[in-house]
Design brief:
Elements: H1 3-8, H2 14-47
Length: 50
């Protein structure tokens, strides 16, 4: 098997994988931020004494 034939089997667009991974991490961090900070702050504002 030649070098060109071995490299030809890797046709997956790696930049698309990198972008998907990046946006996935951003989505997870955003969800954690909302769950850990925004929702508790909203509950605090809802039940805080005036």
């Amino acid at each position: 098997m030649t070098q060109q034939a071995r490299l030809g089997q890797f046709t997956h667009p790696s930049w698309l994988t990198a972008l998907g991974t990046t946006f996935g991490y951003i989505a997870i961090l955003l969800a954690m931020f909302v769950l850990l900070f925004v929702i508790p702050y909203g509950i605090f504002l809802l039940f805080a004494p005036v």
